[in-house]
Amino acid sequence: MTSFAPAIRLIWLFLWVCLWAAAFSVPASGDQVFKNHHCITSLDRGTINWTTGTITATGRAEPRTNKDNIHEADPGSARADANRRLIDILKGIRIHNDLKVGQYAAGNDAILAGIEKTARDAVIIRQYYTSAMDVELTVQTRIFGGFLQLVLPDDIRQIPKINPDIGPNAQTDPGKIPFTGLILDIRGLGFEPVLYPVIVSEQGRTIYSAVFISREFAVQQGVCKYLCDMDSALQDPRVGSHPLVLKGLRKSGKKNTAIVISMADAKQLEQATERHLFLKQCRVIFVTGD
Questions:
Q1: How far apart are CA 148 and CA 47, in angstroms?
Q2: Boundaries of domain holding 206
Q3: How far apart (Å, rounded) are the C-alpha atoms in residues 256 and 98?
Q4: What is the pTM of this model?
Q5: Would residue 147 count as lying in a domain?
Q6: For 18, phi and psi rounded to 5 degrees?
Q7: pLDDT tens, 225-271?
Q8: Contact between residue 257 and residue 190 where contact means Cβ atoms under 8 Å apart
Q9: What is the separation of C-alpha 209 from the centre of its chain, rounded to a whole number of angstroms?
């Protein structure tokens, strides 16, 4: 019996190595998928994930000297530094191409207080101590909810319940599958994500803006979702199982960050009576990237 002991130990060792390798391979794969389709803006000691609506900020603090002249870690100062950095990031987010949150909030104590509360309520997702007792701490918050309620323009208002078949002459083709959302392909246009993008036709007619959006949905999930991969957009539940896919031609507009679509695409969207419902609910994805 004892002659089998070395072989059994080798088998157990082999199984343990396989399990260890499998456990550590999953995060790497997940990270790669994450990087492939999430739209992330990297900043100095922080990030904006436009796909998930999450903001991170990192604070740092050197050790402090206590009354006994002993160096000790100072996580409280690191957290305060992270909060300050997070506030700076939130204020730097663009509502549209020539208006940042900080500019919009200037002089409005209620909005400024709300931004500070958003930073205070951020959760710690990473805390690191060096051998020299330095502290590096990363916090994370989301822009959805209270923050967007504060900073989205007032002209995005609550829209009452809409009957998709608007108009007495509205007709539905029995063989037609209704569209469940909108995907706008803006790859290659160099478009930088903003909180309030709009879509216009080549003639300048507004296709998607505050007139079509219900504030309830815009606040809870954003005016649109940003993805950097078309396959991911087509499978995203936000736009349902049968989204309408249109192509952006160029950027336009001074006050608002606008994407221009062709007259043919605008006509196709306007002929879909169900658009009133999915635009109201912000079931819209912008596919950015190269």
A1: 18
A2: 181-287
A3: 8
A4: 0.81
A5: yes
A6: -65, -45
A7: 999 999 999 999 999 999 999 999 999 866 557 999 999 999 999 99
A8: no
A9: 19
Give the Å distances, CA to CA, from 136 to 54, 129, 139, 247.
Answer: 19, 7, 10, 43
Q: Does residue 20 lie within any of the structural domains?
A: no
**Sheet harboring 40-43: ordered strands across?**
40-43, 46-49, 54-61, 135-142, 123-129
- Measured distance CA(24)–CA(4) in Å, rounded: 31
- Residue 192, burial from CB neighbour count under 10 angstroms (0-12, 13-18, 19+): middle
Please give the torsion angle defined by the CA atoms of residues 124, 130, 135 and 136, in that order, rounded to the nearest 10 degrees.
Answer: -50
Q: Residue 29: what pLDDT?
A: 36
Q: Are residues 50 and 133 in the same domain?
A: yes
Report how far apart, in Å, the C-alpha atoms of 189 and of each of 121, 220, 224, 251 are: 36, 27, 17, 7
Question: What distance in Å separates the CA atoms of residue 158 and residue 146, rounded to the nearest whole number?
Answer: 16
Number of domains into which the chain is organized: 2
pLDDT digits (tens, 9 = 90+) for 142-183: 999 999 999 999 989 887 765 544 443 445 555 678 999 999
Would you say residue 24 lies in a domain?
A: no
Max CA pair span of the chain:
88
Q: In this structure, are 215 and 273 located in the same domain?
A: yes
- pLDDT at residue 64, rounded to an integer: 83
Cα–Cα distance measured from residue 139 to residue 266, given in angstroms and rounded to the nearest whole number:
42
In a domain, 26, yes or no: no
pLDDT tens per residue across span 124-135? 999 998 888 899
Q: Which of 209, 201, 194, 94 is nearest to 159 (CA)?
A: 209
